[in-house]
Amino acid sequence: MSTLLLNLDFGEPPPKKALEGNAKHRNFVKKRRLLERRGFLSKKNQPPSKAPKLHSEPPKKGETPMVDGTWKAPSFPKKKKTAACSNGSGQPLDKKAAVSWLTPAPSKRADSVAAKVDLLGEFQSALPKINSHPTRSQKKGSQKKSSKKNHPQKNAPQNSTQAHSENKCSGISQKLPQKMVAIDCEMVGTGPKGHVSSLARCSIVNYNGDVLYDEYILPPCHIVDYRTRWSGIRKQHMVHATPFKIARGQILKILTGKIVVGHAIHNDFKALQYFHPKSLTRDTSHIPPLNRKADCPENATMSLKHLTKKLLNRDIQVGKSGHSSVEDAQATMELYKLVEVEWEEHLAQNPPKD
């Protein structure tokens, strides 16, 4: 009995290793469950976007747990090491940099700033390259160079414009005679005692003296005095004469818009019952340079017969058969040509008021 009691009372206590092993096992199980709850053991192949935000490193593939809670990483084969090299340079990268899902997730604020910077960089790189604007001094220098280079080209347009203006002036001088006509009318007496002058013949010539219009015209009123001594009109001329209204329309078509030359032309317009603009009217009975050429007083009203004899050395309105309106119109145009340049310059400087 004594031996039995001794065995019970003084037996050796249980070994410490077994107790320690139980505690370590419980600690291991606790950590494993924690890792399983957090998804490190069940979801080893999780994509990088769903990586946890813990700073502690999860167990890598092939690692074995140690008794003290640490993990022992096996040696990687050579092929995996070469795959983890940067840019093909052969220098190995850091383990955390090589495995992207092991790096801790950055904060939201840092993500937004980095995203903005990346977007800005992409936007700027996508923009086309624009040359910088030149400074004022560069602009001036380039303008001077271009002006030197284009100087002969600038002179060419100037010369062309001058030539164009000269051609234009010559064109105007050529068009001016085409727009200039001379007129002369012959009248007969109508009304009480034949004191009213009515149109009975009208002649119009161009700048060169060619006849544009020459017609006998039948007055609307009864003719009392034919005035044949001056007008050259006789009764037989009125047999086939053009009625006044028709003749007047024909004449005004020729005169409208043209420079009309005449001697005492206001009488002709009065017989036509027409008013022509003063700026387009040239009356040889009131042109001082013409009187000066004929050695006559400048303000005097000289007759067409006298001026023609004095300046053209030609006799008109001779005999008892009367005047010829065609002859008088041609003489008027020739007289005006003598002072045309001088008188047109005077009118350009002192335009008449209508």
Automatic annotation (TrEMBL):
| Gene3D superfamilies xref list | Ribonuclease H-like superfamily/Ribonuclease H
UniProt GO cellular component terms: nucleolus
InterPro entries hit by this protein: ISG20_DEDDh, REXO1/3/4-like, Ribonucl_H, RNaseH-like_sf, RNaseH_sf
Report if keyword Transmembrane helix is assigned: no
Any idea where the Exonuclease domain is? 179-345
Provide the protein's localization.
Nucleus, Nucleolus
Keyword annotations: Exonuclease, Hydrolase, Nuclease, Nucleus
Provide the residue span(s) of the region labelled Disordered: 1-94, 126-169
Q: Which GO terms describe its molecular function?
A: 3'-5'-RNA exonuclease activity; nucleic acid binding
Chain coiled-coil ranges: none
Instruction: Give the record's GO biological process terms.
Output: DNA metabolic process
Domain of life of the organism encoding this protein: Eukaryota
Tell me if Nuclease is a UniProt keyword of this record. yes
User: Where is this chain compositionally biased, Basic residues type?
Assistant: 24-35, 136-152
| Comp. bias intervals (Polar residues) | 153-169
Q: Where is the composition biased (Basic and acidic residues)?
A: 14-23, 54-63
What protein name applies here? Exonuclease domain-containing protein
